Known about the structure:
Pathway: Purine metabolism; guanine degradation; xanthine from guanine: step 1/1. By secondary structure, the chain is α/β, with parallel strands linked by helices. The protein folds into two domains: 5-75 and 407-479, Urease, subunit C, domain 1 (Roll); 77-398, Metal-dependent hydrolases (TIM Barrel, Alpha-Beta Barrel), CATH 3.20.20.140. It is built from 14 helices and 17 strands. It has helices at residues 50-56, 98-111, 116-132, 146-159, 183-199, 227-238, 253-262, 269-275, 293-302, 310-315, 323-328, 347-365, 384-398, 448-462, and strands at residues 5-18, 21-33, 38-42, 63-66, 71-75, 77-83, 135-141, 162-166, 168-169, 213-219, 244-249, 283-287, 305-308, 332-335, 416-420, 468-473, 476-479. β2 (21-33) and β3 (38-42) form a beta hairpin. α3 (116-132) runs parallel beside α4, α5 runs parallel beside α6 and α12 packs across α13. The protein starts with a strand and ends in a 5-residue tail after the last strand. 52% of the residues are buried.
Amino acid sequence: MLTPTVAVYHGSLINPTTLTSYEAIPNCLIAVNAHGNIDWIVHDVKDSSIQETLLQKGLLDVNIVALQEGQFIMPGFIDTHTHAPQVPNLGTGYQYELLEWLEKFTFPMEANFQDLDFANQMYPSIVKKFIASGTTTCCYYGTLHLESNKVLAGIVHSLGQRALIGKCNMDRNCPSYYIEPSSSSSISDTQEFISFVHSLPPGPSNNPSNPLVYPVVTPRFAISCTNQLLSSLQNLVHSDPRLHIQTHIAENPKEVEFTKELYPDCEHYAGVYDSYGLLRKNTILAHAVWLGEREIDLVKEREAGISHCPTSNFNLRSGVAPIGKYLDRGVKIGLGSDVSGGFSPSMLVTMRNASIASTVVALQYNPTNAPIEAGRFTNRQLPLATLLYLATKGGAEVCALDKQIGSLEPGKSFDALIVDVSNSGSTLKGSGINPAASISTAALNLSSRDILERMLERFVFCGDDRNISAVYVQGKLIGGTSYA
Ligand SMILES: Nc1nc2[nH]cnc2c(=O)[nH]1
Ligand SMILES: [Zn+2]
């Protein structure tokens, strides 16, 4: 039976298409059905033609959301790597590199979440922060605790965000107060967590193959897992090819060295995960700052994706990932806020740092900006179109959810943002100076495409939560400044 259209959005659309291009089209009409999927999109529908177009589509009585001047609609952001229980540590401990930072700040904070009262108190505001920043799909690491991860999953589900949530597996090289007692308990807790997440209702899609919350198998990183644990995780993921996998890889030189010591039989870091069947097309590999050439080939061959976490890589002095090179090699790339290695849950901040990281790579290669022979992306600053792609469609590919999300197209879920960069928007009242909203382009006599491009640029480089007036997941309004 046909699902009825229940809402139609009218206004400017910004939509990623390829790594180097995006649509920027005024006067689009986007129809969304009762299950939160996009039915159709028609371009260039002036105000005066809306009713006629709706009649042609057989729609007599439908809710129209008309965007105002200075607003545009775009796909929601996809954060491919972050740690929900580290949000209380935002901005803390950046004088240390990874392994010391974990020991001194991160493990002590995560251990607090054993207390379910603490988890119930903290997680709602944590998840709301990610939603307010426009993240419609978020890949969360939880803690090692089964019950508090269930709390996190329940809260994410009830707030309506799409998410992948993982219970950490970690049974060695962790402090005694924050370590799993055995590989077998790690596995049984993981199985119970997966069953719990699978038992949550699918959400507005009403379709079990398009749920809101997915479980993701989460060996914290090779250092914190025994061979026995990795081997049991191999059996677990082998039994269900749909299960997502997330882990960290080659983030910091000392971490890489220690990993090699622990796995002397493996050729390299990526080889550790590969030898346990953990590299596949729904594997998300966070950081990947220090991959060797053969590791890049292996990641590409297995169709695994990389979550680029530039803010965290700067803060913990992990290094600068050669993302342009990975893109030229055809590796799937998304962006990760990696809170609290990253100091912000915002994907806008992550996009800015991805831009700066690519600029650092370009300047190291070519300090005087001389004309050069370079790859399409290798050693170059990433352009705006690429930043947009990585934060949306690229993220969807990394999560192996690109058939459903990442761009606004008929048949996909309506996971979208209404962005407001006008200075008259009621959404910005009382919020102080917001640089993204402070410049009028009216006097510049620009084409509509150019105006939209400037609006997007300003949003990406100067915007924040105040410019996000609506956040929709699967057609449902779940956040933004217009949300009560
Ligand atoms: N950035 C980061 N890297 C890790 N490697 C293992 N655990 C972590 C973590 O919590 N954050
Ligand atoms: Zn991380």
